[in-house]
UniProtKB/TrEMBL annotation:
Upper taxonomic lineage: Bacteria, Pseudomonadati, Bacteroidota, Flavobacteriia, Flavobacteriales
Cofactors (names): Mg(2+)
Domain of life the protein comes from: Bacteria
Active site residues of this protein: 8 (nucleophile), 10 (proton donor/acceptor)
This protein's name: Beta-phosphoglucomutase
Encoding gene per record: pgmB
A GO BP annotation: carbohydrate metabolic process
Residues with site note (Important for catalytic activity and assists the phosphoryl transfer reaction to Asp8 by balancing charge and orienting the reacting groups): 113, 144
Database matches in PANTHER family: 6-PHOSPHOGLUCONATE PHOSPHATASE, HEXITOL PHOSPHATASE B
Length: 217
């Protein structure tokens, strides 16, 4: 039996949230906004443009479209300097074991990320070859919690949406998976991700019995 296994990227495979934070903080400082770690939580799973809009709302600031475009460009250029230094040591604990197990058992694997930088990141941490399909911020028109990114991922794998398994660290991502009739596995704080069908703090808590049961369901 086969099931589509779909992974979010930021916060699930690697902790790039810390780099997004550093890059956004510079933009915010430039706008005179004090951007905190708590604020950064609101940006998880959210698209780049939406992230900027949230920051502008925090500072109660209005700017022109041209200024927005400049800031988005600047933010990404800075973010890319952090990405450039990444290597396989940044893969979060337990992720490789799960990817290995799924590969060994011929389960279809996809990435479903809001990031437009997903491919270079997977290349940097040297796991691009594990993925049979990649759907990222360049492919979708509707951001999470819209199910589009995960529905497209299942389609690319030639698998049904129903019963597909999604690993997510954001509330919007869990909601997107649920809306697609998929099985949502929350990675992170249960209190935050309580809408998920299953909850784990990280991948080291996920064992092969759990994965096999999902396949057989
Ligand atoms: P980029 P995910 C998301 O990735 C991040 O969680 C979110 O914080 C970020 O704004 C978004 O990607 C866009 O990223 O600027 O690289 O296109 O969690 O969906 O893998
Ligand atoms: Mg994420």
């Amino acid at each position: 039996k086969k099931k589509a296994f779909i992974f979010d990227l930021d916060g699930v495979i690697v902790d790039t949230a810390k780099y997004h934070f550093l890059a956004w903080q510079k933009i915010a400082a430039q706008l005179g906004i004090d951007f905190t770690h708590e604020h950064n939580e609101q940006l998880k799973g959210v698209s780049r443009i939406r992230s900027l809009e949230i920051i502008l709302a925090i500072g109660n600031i209005t700017i022109t479209q041209e200024e927005k475009d400049n800031l988005l460009l600047k933010k990404n250029e800075d973010y890319l300097t952090y990405i450039d230094k990444m290597d396989e040591s940044e893969i979060l604990d337990g992720v490789m074991q799960v990817l290995h197990y799924l590969k060994q058992n011929n389960q279809p694997i996809a990435l479903g990320s809001a990031s437009k930088n997903a491919r270079p990141i997977l290349e940097k941490v040297k796991i691009l070859s594990y993925f049979d399909a990649i759907v990222d911020g360049n492919d979708v028109t509707n951001a999470k919690p819209d199910p589009e990114v995960f529905v497209q991922a299942a389609k690319k794998l030639n698998m049904p949406s129903e019963g597909a398994i999604v690993f997510e660290d954001s509330v919007a991502g869990v909601q997107a998976a649920n809306a697609a009739q998929m099985v949502s596995v929350g990675i992170g704080e249960k209190a935050v991700l309580h809408e998920a069908h299953y909850n784990f703090n990280n991948f080291t808590e996920i064992d092969t019995t759990f994965l096999q049961n999902l396949v057989n369901k």
